[in-house]
Amino acid sequence: MNLLVTGGCGFIGSHYVRYRLTHHPGDRVVNLDALTYSGNLANLEDIADRPNYRFVRGSICDRALVESLCRSERIDAIVNFAAHTHVDRSILDASPFVETNIGGTLTLLDVARALQIPRYVQVSTDEVYGALTADDPPTDERAPLAPNSPYAASKAAADLMVRAYHVTYGVPAVVTRCTNNYGPCQFPEKLIPLMVINALNDKPLPVYGDGRYVRDWIYVVDHCEGIDLALQKGRPGEIYNFGASNERVNLEIIERILDYLNKPRSLIQYVKDRPGHDRRYALNSGKARAELGWSPRHDFYAALEATIQWYVEHRAWWEAVMTGEYQKYYDAWYGGR
Ligand code: DAU
After folding, report:
1. Would you call 16 a catalytic residue per the annotation?
2. pLDDT > 70 fraction of the chain, expressed in percent and rounded
3. In this structure, which residue's CA is closest to atom 10 in ligand 1?
4. CB of 206 closer than 6 angstroms to any ligand 1 atom
5. Does residue 16 line the site of ligand 1, with CB under 6 A?
6. CB atoms < 10 A from the CB of 305, how many?
7. 18, 208, 3, 201: which is closest to 119 by C-alpha?
8. Cα dihedral angle (7, 184, 98, 129), rounded to 10 degrees?
9. Residue 269: helix, strand or coil by DSSP?
10. How confident is the model at residue 336 (pLDDT cuts 50, 70, 90)?
């Protein structure tokens, strides 16, 4: 099978490229990535020389490029990871989210339609469902969409476009929605890597609000396995949720990080909350388990500790990504909090 993986130099995308090439060594993977601030060639250094892997720098908004790649590489499936993904950045400026997440998805769908590509997977998020209260059951695929951040709204809009292209034009697309991922190579704007790196640098750990917000955490490789199963077995037009039933309040995770690194709790600094901050996410993955035969394999605390240890051992990786752009963002977002 020839795959076009978009956003394959990002956190989840790079794990997926490696997963696919490891589990389907006869496949060819073309990785189209614009290398914006969070895309990093170093994430795939170990597989960059494989003859069945090709990296192309470019945007999913570039219709001519996407179409010529799909034609010349005889692409059988598109798996779309390319997106702006950080909620706080979308609060500072929503326009790149609209352009890439909605506009880029539309471009991919148009090419999938024009070339009749046999498979399309849209990698989405639980954030499209909006917040749960403490008593709500985990969300299943029938729940209404209620995105609360500009990021979540852009992902919901893209999901709806995928649905429309399936219903209207018969594009054989599936949508996957996942909970919060963690693992090596996650950009240090997200909770876990940011807290680990700040702790390693003895800098304050900025906790939003009361720190009692709940997220449902999944190890990134478990997510990749789900996406791969959705690609192989998912029914066109369907949505599949992936969550590992690991609901944790933020403070619990932050305290674990401090304890693992032997750093004092006094590094915790409560800061002004994120506006529109969703209190809780949790997904019901019964459909993925029943239809795809998927289940997460990684134990939360073991995989969390392995992730923290990865950052301890890869200082050069994170120092290289914390460039001027990162500092500018950090100051703009955390400066006034
Ligand atoms: O739920 C899936 C989503 O998870 C993905 O679609 C998004 O791309 C991803 O960014 C993530 O969204 P969250 O907003 O949940 O992740 P984040 O790591 O930004 O924040 C996790 C929780 O930690 C959230 O309650 C906000 C809190 N937080 C985060 C940061 C960065 C803090 O208290 N302080 C911080 O500095």
Report:
1. no
2. 100
3. 86
4. yes
5. no
6. 14
7. 3
8. 120
9. strand
10. confident
Of the candidates 304, 331, 329, the one whose C-alpha atom is nearest the C-alpha of residue 38 is: 329
The span from the CA of 85 to the CA of 161, in Å, is 18
Q: Which residue has the tokens 């069945």?
A: 52
pLDDT digits (tens, 9 = 90+) for 92-107: 999 999 999 999 999 9
- Token pair listed for 63: 């219709």
- b/e sequence 188-223, b meaning 16+ C-beta within 10 Å: bbbbbbbbbbbbbeeeebbbbeebebbbbbbbbbbb
Q: Tell me if residue 126 is catalytic.
A: yes
Q: Could you report the per-residue pLDDT of 37-94, keeping only the tens digit for each?
A: 999 999 999 999 999 999 999 999 999 999 999 999 999 999 999 999 999 999 999 9
Q: What is the pTM of this model?
A: 0.98
Q: What pLDDT score was predicted for residue 128?
A: 98
Instruction: Find all residues with CB under 8 Å of 210, minimum gap 6, and list them.
Output: 270
Burial class (CB in 10 A: 0-12, 13-18, 19+), 135: exposed
Mean of the pLDDT values across residues 270-293? 98
Indicate which residue's Cα is closest to atom 34 of ligand 1: 207
- Cα(282)–Cα(101) distance, integer angstroms: 23
Backbone φ/ψ region at 10: left (φ over 0), alpha (ψ -120 to 50), beta: beta
Architecture of domain 2-182+218-242: 3-Layer(aba) Sandwich (3.40)
Counting runs of H as helices and runs of E as strands, what totals does the chain give?
Answer: 13, 12
Residue 127 is a catalytic residue: yes
Distance from C-alpha of 109 to C-alpha of 161, rounded to nearest angstrom: 8
Residues 144-192 have pLDDT tens digits of 999 999 999 999 999 999 999 999 999 999 999 999 999 999 999 999 9
Q: How far is the CA of 155 from the centre of ligand 1 (A)?
A: 15
**Catalytic residue chosen out of the listed positions 33, 126, 189, 225:** 126
Contact 146, 130 (CB under 8 A): yes
Is residue 244 within 8 Å of 32, Cβ to Cβ? no
Distance CA(23)–CA(25), nearest Å, equals 6
